[in-house]
Amino acid sequence: MDYGFSNEKQSKVAIISSKSSFSVMGIQKKLQESGIEGVPVRPSIFQIEEAIEESEPIIYYLDDEIYTPSGEDFLNEMRKLCLEQERLLILVGEEAEYEKATEIIPKSAIVGWFNRPVDMDALLETLEKALGGEIKPARQRHILIVDDDATYMRMLHEWMKDRYQITMLDAGTKAIHWLMDNSQNVDLILLDCEMPSMDGPTVFRMLKEDPGSRNIPVMFLTGKSDRDMVIRAVGLGPEDYILKSIDKKELMDKLEDFFGRLKTMEDSDQEEVSDGKTGVVF
């Protein structure tokens, strides 16, 4: 399959590896044959920023270094780089290495993962889409939490602050007024079912009646696990519901799964727009 790139300026891809290896050199050689310059770098944000432009992808070749304190520090730096600068990241590694890396870097921030030995045709296809703008980089998602329990909101903020932008409001009326000016910047609302003055279901209905906020996904927060409350919440048609007894890992997995599906839909919409512009029919 021909993956030659005809850009006047040769495209670049940073290849991060903590050590030299024949596998990394093999990837670099295949990229070169396809018209892409693979620039090898050590696990260093400075080296990455010196090697490529912000719009150019990064291949991170995982190895046992990620299990060390310095490796975990670099994974945290990569998480910030991907979310704050919206970089395109591709991981290469065994399943266990991938799972370790995604404990720190959100799966929704990764545009591709390839097990070893690497399927180069699939890797080149992903790079072609990334360089052609068909795959959009992840951005830091913005979650609005609406709950009258300040202690619970602070706990959620502490759990999520490293991965997401968080706004907290302690009343439904405040949320409705705040969203009048900020609805375009919110990706998900976590809404408490039971609040004084205006409860969650009332707020939900008002949000869905307003054109500016009706398309924002909502997940209900409920402190009750009884069947009637769950049925009532689900019956209103939210994206999901979350029991307040949920632990951190389960919550983060639920959010990661949701934003992963959201990004897939966004990429699909972008691909349809691109196909429409170029007249390509599949």
Structure description:
Helix content is 45%, strand content 17%. By secondary structure, the protein is α/β, with parallel strands linked by helices. It folds into two domains: 11-138, Response regulator (Rossmann fold), CATH 3.40.50; 142-259, Rossmann fold. The strands form two sheets. A five-stranded parallel sheet has the order 2-1-3-4-5, sandwiched between helices. Strand 1, helix 1 and strand 2 (36-41) form a beta-alpha-beta unit. Helix 7 (172-182) packs parallel to helix 8. The chain starts with 10 loop residues before the first strand and ends with a helix.
What portion of residues belong to β-strands?
Answer: 15-25%
Number of helices: 10
CATH topology call of the largest domain:
Rossmann fold
Helical percentage: 40-55%
Task: Outline the secondary-structure elements.
Layout: E1 11-16, H1 22-33, E2 36-41, H2 45-51, E3 58-61, H3 69-85, E4 89-92, H4 95-101, E5 110-114, H5 120-131, E6 142-146, H6 150-160, E7 165-169, H7 172-182, E8 188-192, H8 200-209, E9 218-222, H9 227-235, E10 240-243, H10 248-278
Parallel strand pairs: 1-2, 1-3, 3-4, 4-5, 6-7, 6-8, 8-9, 9-10
Pfam families: Response_reg
Domain Response regulatory: 142-259
Protein name: Stage 0 sporulation protein A homolog
Any key phrases for this structure?
single chain, 282 residues, alpha/beta, Rossmann fold, five-stranded parallel sheet, 45% helix, disordered C terminus
